[in-house]
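Appendix B: complex inputs.
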Amino acid sequence: MAAHKGYFGEFGGQFLPEILHATITGLEQVFETAKHDPGFWKEYETLMQNYSCRPTPLTFAENLTKYFNGAQIWVKREDLNHTGSHKLNNVMGQGLLVKRMKKTRVIAETGAGQHGVATATMAAKFGFECTIYMGEVDVLRQRPNVFWMERLGATVVPVKTGSRILKDAINEALRDWVGNMDTTHYVLGTACGAHPFPEMVTWFQSIVGIETKKQILEATGKLPDRVYACVGGGSNAMGIFSGFLKDTAVECVGIEAGGRGIATGEHATRLASPDASIGVSQGYKTFFLQDDDGQMKETHSVAAGLDYVGVSPILSHLKETGRVRFESATDAEVITALSLAVKKEGLIPALESSHAFAGAFREVSQMAPEQIIIINQSGRGDKDIFTIADALHDPKWRDYIKDKAGEYNAS
Amino acid sequence: MLRDYIEKKRVEKKILIMTHIVIGAPDLETSYQTVKAMVEAGVDIMELQIPFSEPVADGPVILAANQTALDRKVTVGQCIDFAERVAKEFPVPFLFMSYYNIVFKYGVNKFAEMMSAKGLKGAIVPDLPHEEAAQYLAAMKKYHLDPIFLYAPTTSDSRMKEISSHASGFIYCVARKGVTGVDTSFSSDLDEYLQRAHTSTDLPLALGFGVQEKADVDFLKGKADIAIIGTQSLRVLAEKGVAGVKKFIAGMQ
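Resulting structure:
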């Protein structure tokens, strides 16, 4: 097949119903114009500096380094973004494009809720109407984020179709978009979907990689040996990897959700397991966890944000070319890694980001002290307090919730 | 090929009726009885949807039907057997409708070969624009099948011409923005859109999305060659059963 726009090797493309053709073409044009306008990137950087603490720090994890007695461990602090994750980078960038397109409403899907909160925040700041689609299962496990989205003025729609998680939220957002594209922009949260989304989201998230490279060179005078990032759709991974892909000595490692273990089938590991195969869905071609008929499978991860059947077409391509290595970490490994990061460094990574920590912790002891690794802490874990407290079987938390429920029941 | 069939039929009928079912919803036997009832009620063409787990262009009713079928473990293999059976038994042309992943996973060339062997006449794949369809188009051509493409009200005149150059059989005109199963306003805007569509192509035009009652079909006479009844017959099936569908379809013409 002839290669055309939006392809990364054989992955990507633009598989959308005809009704969206004019809209997606319009978006492509606005994105291309912005990309070639140096003033746009400057505007974006300034906005992120003033609104979201950029550049975020690169923290040397001295205690963890000592503890593992291997390579030096550095952590890129995307958790310190406003709203608590790297998601805001992409969202504010797309928000600037929405202003250029003169649209007045934004919609988004969300898994963990981080992208939903980020989008609702952007909508509040820019004065857009906002609807967030979120799988019913995720609404239940991420109530604090739902609370904030609603406070921020967004309408949160629990999606009750399919497996009621991230992929189903994407489907519902697409269904909204095909009816309302004149006024509405779909703020896709990850480097997936139809062209130009994978490229566009990666471009906005590349701010992470650009900063990280500069910071590690300033701090240590050399490039890292390895960079670790968790991979759901792939936006934080593409963001930090972007800074290093051309430096072939830097190994990029993507950590996927191993769930209850690859052998159980209850996971969301597309690239680091033999369980996924190439398919076309939700607008793009990539590796999907699907059956032989092409029906998407149920996925599982303790981290809602990684609980997704597909993966960025750019990452599928980077896997095929061997430029990025993919591993997976199980729910149990992730909880252990999270506890260690909290206790040793006072860092509170999100469950999603804790996958990157788990993947790094597994390997770092075997590395030499002059070597350097960077872990992308894509988000903060405070939002996961309910899930983490459950996973840690924290008895005091349980008592607190019971007491709280008692208070509400009594009132 | 479908075009000849449609043009011949149009000599006797002002407008043809195409209906849609989701294979296996609520179960395979009901699907079969529904096809039988629809044919007896006088439909001219039928669309058989192979259920898919991510039907992004479909609204709540067809989406739910896709899920019901998948919950009952209806496989692509069963859908093919079903299509073969009805194509053999009933004297109307049958088309497959599904999303591209189903075709892609089956193997694009193999899918076309299978359709031809089982007596299907063409396919509608709403998430496969012609730009991505080189392999599909070649396979459909090889097996003398009609690839049905879609127009939307947002499609420009020049793009309509481009789409038409890849299509055969007929053009499926989506009546409005949005997913299936929502009301359409049958108004002068629609006239204008169909007029643009006619100007762009020699192929017959079918109009779908929101055709719910006889008045809608009557409105389309002289403006389109085929009225497509999708969601509404699924609703009738759920409420009034197979006999209700038969009466409903008969009443549309």
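The first strand of chain A starts at residue 7 and ends at 8.
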